[in-house]
Write a structure and sequence with these properties.
- With 207 residues, the protein is an all-alpha fold.
- The protein has one domain: Fic-like fold.
- Helices cover 61% and strands 0% of the residues.
- The protein is built from eight helices and no strands.
- It is globular.
- The protein starts with 8 loop residues before the first helix and ends in a 12-residue tail after the last helix.
């Protein structure tokens, strides 16, 4: 049961919006579990589930790593045969640096690295943003307050998001791990979210 954007844009947008609501509900559950289990809770199965929910009824390959090439603007993600090992390394890096990096540093790494690997056929951005927020909350030790959460604010400020990803890409191409531009961007968004604490919640918005 697949809805195509080209065949019925209104229905496609509605399905995508409903998926986003469900993904946020599931993400909240994951955060609660992660607050109990700490850094050991994040695994590939959680990422598969976040992606599956994000693309349900709009992609037949949700919740599994891609097995074909994919292109994203000027970025050419790694060969699909490299994806499983790269994802293992990604999760290991998160675990190993849990206490070395701040919440926004950990979130920035997760946001950039998942976008760089692009492990799924579709829904990579939505999965990366959800993972980013999971890391931010669990590393902070709380389900962060605020009526409009960081992943939603990212969609409101795509220019800063893309600039941060591109800066991290350039550093990686030069042999450096440097996601500081993206971390500063996320820190600003988190500050804005926390300043909204106590206001009534707003409904999530799809891309």
């Amino acid at each position: 049961m697949i809805v195509s954007e080209g065949d019925d844009r209104d229905l496609f947008d509605w399905v995508q919006e409903q998926n986003l609501v469900r993904q946020y509900d599931f993400l909240a559950n994951c955060i609660v579990i992660g607050l109990k289990q700490r850094h050991t809770a994040l695994d590939k199965y959680t990422l598969w589930a976040l992606n599956h929910i994000a693309v349900a009824n709009i992609s037949q390959f949700g919740g599994r790593f891609r097995e074909e090439p994919i292109y994203v603007g000027n970025h050419i993600p790694p060969h699909f045969r490299e994806v499983p090992e790269l994802m293992d390394r990604f999760i290991s890096t998160v675990h190993e640096n849990w206490f070395n990096w701040s919440p926004t540093e950990l979130a920035a790494y997760g946001l950039w690295r998942l976008n760089w690997i692009h492990p799924f056929i579709e829904g990579n951005g939505r999965t990366a943003r959800a993972t980013c927020y999971y890391l931010m909350c669990v590393r902070s030790g709380t389900l962060l307050p605020g009526r409009r959460i960081v992943p939603e604010r990212i969609r409101d400020d795509r220019a800063g998001y893309e600039a941060g990803l591109q800066a991290a890409d350039r550093a990686w191409d030069q042999g450096h791990l440097d996601f500081s531009v993206l971390e500063e961007y996320l820190a600003r968004l988190l500050e804005a979210q926390l300043s909204d604490d106590g206001l009534p919640p707003l409904p999530p918005q799809s891309n």
